[in-house]
Design brief:
By secondary structure, this protein is of the alpha+beta class. Strands 5-4-9-1-10 form a five-stranded antiparallel sheet, with helices on one face. The longest helix has 65 residues.
């Protein structure tokens, strides 16, 4: 074999190699084209609307879940608000009832004499004394009872004798031949200071006017003084009020 023949053979081999490479590249390009074609076809055949519908359905489902949770929370809020309002109304009702009860209790205590009171009225001061002949003029339990009854009839709303509150259940008694006077179980002595709250002018005129108890005592020479005032303080009855037969 000569050199020319070898060169010619080499050229043929080289040419075949190029053809092989070209064919290989072509096959690769064809395969790539086929793959791309299949992908495009897959994309074209895919139902985009279904995907969108699926996402929309998921969103609707999620929205429905949130709405359900919101409705539950709102229902709980409404229930709590209703309960709170009920408690508030009950509290206001209880407070109103308590106020009415307290007012009623205050009025009862006022009537029973269990409360310190102030108001317009008169003060009467009686002292044991003697007349011009030297005869003793001693204030008796009958004198006190007469004055107290006249004050009640004249509309006195509160009465006390030497700071002892006079109520319906007060006991005014005397012992040792009427020489010792007890009011509410407490000993009282001259001077006897009687306080009464009411219309001061009417109370005074009732006692001092002709035929009144103070008028009669003055005529007999007793040491008696009556004073009107715009502000008189009468202290409460400080004993227990007990009943034996009332239930």
């Amino acid at each position: 074999m000569n050199i020319e023949h070898f060169k010619k053979g080499g050229k043929i081999l080289k040419k075949k190699g190029k053809i092989t490479v070209t064919i290989t590249i072509g096959i690769a390009c064809l395969a790539l084209s086929i793959v791309m074609f299949m992908q495009f076809k897959l994309v074209n055949e895919t139902d985009i609307t279904s995907i969108e519908n699926m996402r929309e359905e998921e969103l609707r489902t999620e929205l429905a879940n949130w709405k359900e949770q919101y409705d539950e929370a709102n229902e709980q809020y409404e229930q709590k608000s209703a309960t709170l309002e009920e408690y508030k109304e009950k509290e206001e009702s209880d407070a109103e009832t308590e106020n009415l009860v307290n007012e009623e209790l205050a009025n009862v205590n006022l009537i029973l004499g269990k409360t310190d009171v102030e108001g317009e009225g008169i003060t009467i001061t009686l002292r044991d004394s003697s007349n011009d002949d030297g005869d003793a003029l001693t204030i008796t339990i009958d004198n006190l009872n007469t004055i107290i009854n006249e004050l009640k009839m004249a509309g006195a709303e509160a009465i006390s004798v030497n700071e002892e509150r006079i109520i319906n259940m007060s006991d005014i008694a005397s012992i040792n031949d009427k020489s010792l006077i007890l009011i509410n179980g407490q000993r009282v002595i001259s001077p006897y200071v009687i306080k009464a709250i009411g219309d001061s002018t009417y109370l005074e005129s009732t006692l001092v006017g002709k035929g009144g108890s103070i008028d009669e005592l003055e005529k007999l020479g007793y040491d008696v003084a009556v004073e009107k005032s715009n502000k008189i303080t009468i202290y409460k009855y400080n004993k227990e009020i007990n009943s034996k037969y009332m239930q």
